[in-house]
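RETRY 2/3 - previous attempt timed out on the joint model. Re-submitting the same 1197-residue input unchanged.
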Amino acid sequence: MIEQAVPFTPQLTASPIAEILWLIPAVPMVAAGVIALLKQPRRTAAATLAIGSLGFSLLLSLVAFGHVLAGWSNQVAVRETVNFTWIQVGASTVDLGWVLDPLSAVMMVMVCFVGLLIFIYSTGYMAHDENFTRFFCFLALFAGAMLGVVIANSLLLLFMCWELVGLTSYLLIGFWYQKPSAAAAAKKAFLTTRVGDIFFLLGIVWLFNDTGTLLFYDHGAGSMEGFALAGLLSHHVALGLTVAGAIGLLIFAGAAGKSGQLPLHVWLPDAMEGPTPVSALIHAATMVAAGVYLIARVYPLMSAGMPLIRAGAVTGTTAALAVVTWIGAATAVFAALIAIAQNDIKRILAYSTVSQLGYMMAGLGLGGVAVGMFHLITHAFFKALLFLGAGSVIHGCCDEQDIRRMGGLKVDMPLTFITYAIGMLALCGFPLVFSGFWSKDGILEAAHSGAIQGPFYLLVFGALLTAFYMTRQVSYVFFGYWRGHHPAHESPGVMTVPLAILAFFAIALGAIGTPAWPWFRAFLDGRSAAFNWHGFAEPGLALLMLTSSLVVFLGIGLGIWLYGGKSPSPEEPDVLEKATPWLWAGLRDRLYVDEFYGATVIAFYGWWARAADWLDRWIWGGIVAAVAGFFGLWAKFNRLLDMHFVDGGFDKTCEEIATGGGLLARVQGGRVQIYLRILAIAVVVLAAILFWSSRA
Amino acid sequence: MAWTIYISFAGALLEALLPKDRHGLARWLALAVALAGLVIAVAAYAAGMGQGTTVIADALWVPSMGIHYKLAADGISRVLVLLTGLASVAGVLFSWNIELRTNQFFAFYLALIGGVYGVFLSFDLFLLFVFYEIAIVPKYFLIAIWGSTRREYGAMKLALYSFAGSAMVLIGLLAAYAASGSHSTTLADLAHAGLPVPMQMGLFPLVFVGFAILAGMWPFHTWAPTGHVAAPTAASMLLAGVVMKLGAYGCLRVAMGVFPRGLDPWGFSLLGLGSWRDVFALLAVVGIVYGALVALAQSDFKFVIGYSSVSHMGFVLLGLMTLNQIGLDGAVLQMFSHGVIAGLLFAIVGRIVYDRTHTRQLAELETMHLAKRLPFAAWAFVIAGIASMGLPGFSGFVAELQVLVGAWNARPWWTVAAGVGVIVGVAYTWRALQKAFFSDRLPTPDEHPKTGWHDLGAITWPEIAGVALLGISTIVVGLYPRILLDSIEPAVKALLAGGVQ
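RETRY 2/3 succeeded.
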């Protein structure tokens, strides 16, 4: 590495801006509450509140970012925390708190900025929806919860906001709940992520049990700091896995659920049932990236026990990070393969998101926090751009989502086309100009320098597929001739201006992460960065850049060769389908993962539930019935005994008495109200007697 | 605080004496009595913060046997009295539409409440037992007279289970009393009597199971779903809300308090179980998973909630068996939390939905488009549902988290197994939610569903007030759990110091 490792002085005491950091999530949440209380027609008020609150949060996070940046340029590593006790258990406490450090500062600026653009875009996209205010209420609530995840300094607070984020995601996927597919997708999303969350919760419980704290940083006493980590490393679970590694894996299961990693990726493509701005904000830019952010947050735990982290270059790995790497790389290829055979414009992007999240995870596993986070940030911009562009296309084509019924839109929607093309090239990793190239290259470089080359080859293959499926999509949508029903039209300015801004960043962000000036990595790692042209001339690096460029060109070239300029009718089978029908069918049907789950896990639970129900109805119920029946029979037997043997001649006498009992019998008419009244009077009389006798 | 008991019984008496056609008067009287109870409970709770155990009344009641009329309260009692106050007010609000023998309904209702208050405040074993029995009787009448769906069967099953449990408890108590020779039946005296360990080991399971039947412990839980389903709304709210807590409270205060050594290891292990603690923890975990699974397979909306109670009460019992501070804290908090949340769920299903649609079959509700016709009910159920599945921000999360931490501390696999139950909990709640409210299956055969819709009736103010009361309670505790934990904590600590280990 080129940068010198100048040790930064740590800054731990909270500055005024860190003290009020809680306002960043709180203000949008309060805005959501106020919107919820608004009456339905107040559309302008709802949009203004949501946008205004997030704008405020953006300002505040920019100030916070500026504070961290100022510290960084003075060679101070800012990590300011504010903690407080939430509950007290015996001698130990469960604390919550928030943290201001480079990681949270970068993330909160991104969330606020992208979120704000998408909020503005939504005022155009959702203009005709009758539940406009409800939409902005949920959006604001989501933004608040997501920012809560970002600033949390406690695994528990993070988990709480994490669940709230999942809930708003559920509410927004099912926003058009009148559509059964939307309601089903929402339920699936919630359930699948919840499966991951249970592992996450177990990890939290375990971590708390072993370290006694859930704070990340607490002046040396936090769970991500040396003392606690040393304790976790000193115990082994099995097969050489340390407790730290086991907890890390449990937390990763939660992250995999949220970030759509194998095998919990199934909900994310279905989540596209939600409105498109939701897909852009939640299911592309921010929430699904929360899993990656979580792993970046607990990276000290994941990497605990690693031989050496030297000057930002990660050498060696741990069991937990190896799992993260392999799952990420496998997801990257798996989802990219499926994306090839999809025809819904948003589903292609959804599988692309799953695939890119795999890249981020692999980046974290191989190259550390900065590598994964850089791809997270660039991806947030260009994927939000692509989704909003897709929304603009859908809007312009009167809610058509099938790419086979589009075509030639580069003429009808020029602004959308240009911005979309920028987003597509950034996603493909087109060399030098686009941010995606640099962030993806960082991951490939880390993979290449790893001990095992498997993930590297997977990720390169994924890059080829990415370029290919995106070329296919763009050819179908923007080139050829129009195959839809209604003529398409360009979207209003409120939608295209956010596209242009995002497109600008899809290009410009690359500048902060080139090998010549790796500012982003230095900023996150707390080191200084110097500009140096020789960064490009690192041995092996130029070759790697060349390789990845060639792969991208190959993917785009293949795409143009197979799909460019052709406009097959919607009924015509795909070019690849003609060549390999079986492979195409498998990819189109998403490699049957859903069907597999339906036949195994879900069927198993259903069977188990019915078995338990049967047990309850017939066995436990039967035992009760048998006991009752036995006593009934016994009672009958006793009655017979009584009637024929004991009573005998006694009956005669009784009959005479019985006639005299007629008077009393009238009281016992079986009418509860009379019983009650007598009971009540009796109690009153009794009380009176007691009262008087005690006085006497 | 003793006035909570007296006012409730006095209210029950007054209700019984009311002329039977004055429905409005009966309702307002019941509400006034319940509110008075709640106000006293809140005031006493606030005053009792950081006070430890306070004795309210102590007099020799039956001198020949050493039975005391001893009322007292510690942090655990105060929390549960508070819960009873909340549940009773909400129950009255959700019974506002009772037209059949209104005054008698509220008479039984308030008598039940009075008995419950009594149990939570009794520090004498026989007094506790008397109140416990008082609480059981009105329950039978409430279900048998005002219930629905096999109400006689449900009521009788409930009563028989309860009395079987009581019999077991009584045997245990008499034996303990006889063996102690201390000529006093106060809990403190019995706990300090130093009963021989083998005897404690013998009596503990008897008393524990006797109480745990009412807490819905698997496999003695089957009274709960049928009883809940048969009961009128307010009764099922009380049944799940406070009566199941009587059982759990008895387990904690009596079984574990008087026979602390009953939990000691047996000295040998059978199928991996080495003590009564292992046995009951296993049953609790089975209950958590099993209850959730059965809830997943139900076609009746109320059965879903009924079985969910079995699952959630499993967390209480598991928390008790962790025998550590955080687990026991969680168990007591879960008693409160489940009382509030289950009350809310039953209110929505029984009052808001059933009283309008007259069906609880999910297959029929699916065709009714309730999200559009009863948006209030749909959103209330979404909130109650996410509270029930233990989402952060609601009381259930804090409680279950503490139980899970405590269980991990004791035996990690308990936590893992309970985690499976939590996942299934999400599944059944969402399934019921979607089928009941957000499905748009058309009624068959019917092309124009809208023409077939009769008016479901507007949501009334008592319903809104009741939902708000319970909903706000669970959120307040969820966000600021110290409001209850600061009371529970020292009481549990004292209990642990008193021998439960």
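The two ends of chain B are 30 Å apart (CA to CA). Closing ticket.
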